[in-house]
Amino acid sequence: MLPSCLCSLRRLGAGGPQTPPPQCLQPGGRGLLVGGVATRRNHAPWAGPAPRLFSGSSKSRLGLASGLECDLATNLVGQPLVRQQVMKGVKEFLQNPSPAKPLVMSFHGSTGTGKTYVSSMLVRHLFQGGLRSPYVHHFSPIVHFPHAEHIEQYKENLKRWIQGNLTSCGRSAFLFDEMDKMHPGLIDVIMPFLGPSWVVYGTNYRKAIFIFISNAGGEQINEMTLDLWRAHRDREEISLQDAESAISKAVFENPQSGFWKSGIINEHLIDFVVPFLPLKHHHVKQCVVNELVQQGLEVRQGMVQEVADSIPYFPEEEKIFSSTGCKTVASRISFFF
Ligand SMILES: Nc1ncnc2c1ncn2[C@@H]1O[C@H](COP(=O)(O)OP(=O)(O)OP(=O)(O)O)[C@@H](O)[C@H]1O
Ligand SMILES: [Mg+2]
């Protein structure tokens, strides 16, 4: 049994009262009520087992990072830049017993390139129970913020939810999936939690992790990768700096990105912009092999090739990159097996 949560305000010595749970938390109840839909949580977030990442020293926390590193190296296909960026962020953050600000990462790329996959892997290594941990909060706009006319209520609820959970446990993780479907302006309500201050609303929040996930910027990444291919250069030679500025510009200017004219971009509150590159045919084949192994099925090269060939590729003429990444691999296998 892990020790109880070590991340409380007392431990951090940040002062401030342990405020009672705000209204958006339903003690023993049904979770966050936004858009008339309750989150999957069925018990109060402060009542669950301690997140792994709170136990022990920075050395043992780095052990968790090694597990993540190994998992990424073994199972994530064709995304060395993602591995590099995510591990840099996570290691630096876990090593530091007193981070100056929360870790804020933003994942960008086209469909099926591994964004949700990596975010699940990350929380699985850092939090007991992974996505089901009471300290991991996963938001999907379609589920949690479906109605544009309720945006003011969502803002209030979201702010209270984050504040309440960080009061309960500073080492919480907040995942915002499908950011491109988020109503413009909604996400800026969490800005005060992302910056390098000591406390906000009486809550210490510097040990939290925020991950934004989005397709926005994917076109720009694909375009840059195609340019490299046309110049006979490796797709992984993409410059992180160039990718970051292209993505930031794209999401800031796109009303459908969730970050439209967002202060989060303007104030440079994102520590790591993580570009997911489009996957090539041989990457898709690797995904097929991984999936077969995971399902305990025999790996037959002919069948691996057939599944990979059945997926659409772009550009139309050259067919270099998978249009759906590895997203449909699992469902296609049953047709070919
Ligand atoms: N780079 C990758 N390496 C290994 N497997 C991958 C990779 N990308 C995708 N997959 C496989 O495809 C599935 C779907 O990927 P995932 O859900 O992460 O895509 P996504 O980038 O989040 O797409 P979307 O933008 O549509 O949400 C994963 O569960 C995983 O099995
Ligand atoms: Mg996804």
TrEMBL record:
Keywords: ATP-binding, Endoplasmic reticulum, Glycoprotein, Nucleotide-binding, Signal. ATP binds at G109, S110, T111, G112, T113, G114, K115, T116. It is found in: Endoplasmic reticulum lumen. GO terms for molecular function: ATP binding; ATP hydrolysis activity; identical protein binding. InterPro entries: ClpA/B (IPR001270), P-loop_NTPase (IPR027417), TOR1A_C (IPR049337), Torsin (IPR010448), Torsin_1/2 (IPR017378). GO terms for cellular component: endoplasmic reticulum lumen; nuclear envelope. Pfam families: TOR1A_C, Torsin. SUPFAM superfamilies: P-loop containing nucleoside triphosphate hydrolases. It comes from the Eukaryota. Residues 279-336 form the Torsin-1A C-terminal domain. PANTHER family: TORSIN, TORSIN-2A. Belongs to the ClpA/ClpB family. Torsin subfamily. This is Torsin.
